[in-house]
Amino acid sequence: MATQTQGTPPLSASPDEGVRRRDFIYVATGAFAGVGAAAVAWPLINQMNPSADVLALSSIEVDLSSIQPGQAIKTIWRSKPVFVRNLTDAEQAEANKVDIASLRDPQSLADRTLEGNRNWMITLAVCTHLGCIPLGAAEGEVRGDYGGYFCPCHGSHYDTAARIRKGPAPSNLEVPDYAFKSPTLVEIG
Amino acid sequence: MSFSWANQYQPQNPFMQWVDSRLPLPRLVYNAVGAGYPVPRNINYMYNFGVLAGVALMVQIITGIVLAMHFSAHIDTAFDSVEHIMRDVNSGWMLRYMHMNGASFFFIVVYFHIFRGLYYGSYKAPREVVWMLGVVIFLLMMATAFMGYVLPWGQMSFWGAQVITSLFSAIPLVGEAIRTWLVGGFAPDNATLTRFFSLHYVLPFVILGVVILKIWALHIPGSTNPTGVDVQGPQDTLPFHPYFTAKDFFTLCLYLLIFAAIVFFAPNFLGHPDNYIPANNLSTPALIVPEWYFWPFYAILRAFTVDFLFVPAKLWGVIAMFASILLLFFLPWLDSSRVKSTAYRPMYRIWFWVLVVDVIILAWVGGAPAAEPYVRISQLASAYYFAHFLILLPLLSMIEKPLPMPNSIAESVLAKVQKKGGNTAGLTAPVAPGAVAAPAE
Amino acid sequence: MVRLFGLGAGLVFVIALLWGAVQPREAVVPDPVKAIHLHPEQVKFSHDGAMGVFGTFDRAQLQRGYQVYKEVCSACHGLERVAFRNLQDIGFSAEEVRALARAKEVPSIDPRTGEPSTRPALPADRIPGPFINEVQARAANNNALPPDLSLIVKARHDGQNYVYSLLTGYDRPVPAGHDVPPGLNFNPYFHSVNIAMARPLQDDQITYADGTKATTDQMARDVTTFLRWAAEPELEKRRQIGVASVIFLTILSFLAFLTYRKVWANIPH
To answer: Which of B85, B157, C127, C211 could tie B150 with a disulfide, CB 3.0–4.6 Å?
Structure first.
C-alpha cells in the first residue's frame, strides 16, 4: 500500500464480493437514470404531435344543399383541400363503363362512394404524385382527358370517379372517411 | 492540462483510438470532465453548484427550443399562444412550468455558486478571468430572464418592460433616445416583443459559449478548495471521473427532486398572479415587481430617493444598480488578502455572513411596496452592500491577521481523517514523480 | 488604484444613501380602506386533499359549478379559453357536449352573402362570451369590465379562496365612516372594498340537477372548483405525474448516494 497512487481505492478484504455488490449498485443506478431520461424524452418528442385543438378539428361537416349535379366545391379538412363533387348520371355511367382491370389502381365507382349516395364523389384534392392540387373543381377549369381532374404540375389525368388514368400519379385520389348525417349534410373524418 | 500528474488519455478500444487520432474529441472530454482532470479532494458540497448551473442552463435551452415551436411572438397572439401551450399542446403545461421555474432554479443555483466563490476566494489570482467570465454570464442571464418574462405579454410582462426600459431614460441627454431605440417605439409594443423574443432565443447560446470559455479558464488552475491552499501534488487531488461525476450526479438527483416538487405541486409559487392577466396598457398593476431573483437589485434601484451632488435620484438609482453588479468585476483587486478561504479570515468571516443577510434583506424590501419602513431599510441595506465591497473588504484585507493555515490539502484532510480515526491511504504515501492516478474504472 | 477608486465610489454611494435615509419622511396618511379590507377566508376544497397538493376533482361538483357559471356568471363573464370539447373532462359525454355547443351561437360569415352572421357552435369552438368586445361589456355594466373567468383563479393572489370569499362576502355590515359610492356594492374582500358586481348568488337561486341544496356557500364552492379546473385543467394529471416523479427521483437519489459512497469508499477527503 505504500506505493499506492492517488485515487486508487484500497482493495477490500474479499474482492469478488465487493465487485459484485458494487456492480449491482452501479447497474441499478444506471438503469434507473436511463429510465428517467427516457421518461423525460417522451414529452419533448410528443409535444410535436398534433395538439388537442388541432385534433378537435379532425372532423368537419359540409352542407351539400347548394351543390348542383355536375358541380364541385373545394373545402378544407385537416388543413388539406377536399373535393366534393355531385356527379351527373352521365358522369356516373361513364365511370361505371370503364374496365376495372385496365386501371392502374383498380377501383369501381361503388368502391369509392357510399350506397344511396353514389353521386357524391368526395376525395382529397391532393394529387397522389407529389401533392399538388388538381384542377377541375371550379367552373371553367381544365378537367383533363377523362372529364374528372387534371393536375397541372406533372400532367396526371383523373376520371369522373377521381381515378388515375394517365400521367405519373401512382394511385387514385384518396377518399377520406365520411358519413351522411342527413341527405344534405356530410361529416368528413 | 496544467497538472503534470493528470491521467493521460490512453484509449484501449480500437475504435476510440481511431477517432481520437483523427478528431481528439474523446481526449477533450476526458481532460475536461473525465479522469484526466484532477480536482482537489477536499472540496465540499458547495462546489457542486457549478455543475448544477450547467444542467439548469441546458434544461432552459431544451425546454425553450421546444416552447418556441408553439409560441407566437405578436402582441395579439402571444398570451393566447402561451395558454395554447398550457391547455392544448401535448405536455405543454409541463414544458412551460419547467421553463418558468427553471429560470428561478437557475438563479438559485447561481446565487449559491456566487456566494461559494465569495467565501472561498474563487475570484483571487490566478482565477480572476474565471470569476469575470462568471459575472458576464450573470449579466447575460439577467438580460435573458428579463426578456423571457416579457414574452407571455401579461400585465407584469408589459409593465416590467415599461419600468426596466424606462431606467435608460435616466441617462442624461441621450437617455430618451436610447429607450426609444431599445423598445422600438414610444412604449413597449409589438416591435419590443419581437426583438425580445429574438434576443431571448439567441442569448442562451451566447451564455453557453461563455460557459465553455469559463470552464476552459477554470481548467488552467483548477478549482479552489475549502482550505484555500493551492494544489501541490497528486496526493491533493482526485480525478474528476469517477469521484466528482458520482458526487455531482447525487446532488443533481436531489436538485431535480426539489425542482420536480415545485414544477408539479406549486408551479406558480415563484410567479406573480398578474401575469395571468393579458397586458393592458391602460391599467397598471397595483404593485409592479420584477421576478424574485431581481429583487436585491431592484431594492438598490429604488433606494435612492433624494437628488445628491446635482445628480437626480433616478439616475443615482440606475448607476448604483449597475454598479452593484459591475463592481464584482473589480473584486479580485479590491480584496488584496492573499488568503483565499474565508475559513482562515476571522474578521472577514463575520462580514461575509453580514453580507449574506444584507442581500436577503435587500431581496425582501425589493419585493415590497415602496413605502416606509421598506424604503429606509433598503437605503441602509444598500449602503452596507456598497460599503462591504468598496470600503470594508479593501480595508480588512490590509489589517486582518489570518489564522494559521494547513501546509497542504493532504495535510488538512489527514488531520480531519485522523481525528475520526479513518483510513489515510493515498495521503501519507510518498508520491513518485509523475505518478499516474488510476481511475477506479 | 482600483482600491482607491473603489473607496471613493463606495463613499459616494454610502453617503448618498445615508443622506436619503436621514431625510424626514412625510407623515403617512393611513389608508382607511386598508383597515376594512379582509384577506380571503381560508377554505378547504374537496380537490385539495393532503397538504393541499394532492387530490382530484369531484366530477359532480365540477358539473354543478359549470351549471352555476352557465346560469349565473355567464350573464356578464366570459370563459373564453375553455372550449366546449373541454367539458368532456368534467364528465359530460360527447353527445352532451355537442348539445351544449349547439345551444350557443358563435360568429360566422354567411357563405352565400359574405355578411357577418352566426352559426351553432361546434365542440371545437371556445365558449362564447356575453359581449363581443370590451366597449360593449363596459357599456352594459355601468363602465365596469367583468373580467374573463378562465384564468381568474391563477390571476388573483390566493385565487381559490379569493373567489370563494368574494362570492360569499356580500351583505356584510358597512363599517361606520365608510361610504359606498352609488352603483357600487360593499365587499370587504375586494381590493377597494367597493365592487361593481352586485351579489350574484342567493340561496336556492338555481336548482341543481343532482338534487344538492343550492345554498350560497354550496354554489360558491362549486363554481370556485369549476373555475379552478378552468384555470388549471391539467391539475389532476400534474399531481399524478408529480407523485410519480418525486417517488422516482427519491429512489434515484438514494441509489446515486449509494453509488457516490461506493466510489468514495476508503477515499479520505
So the answer is: B157
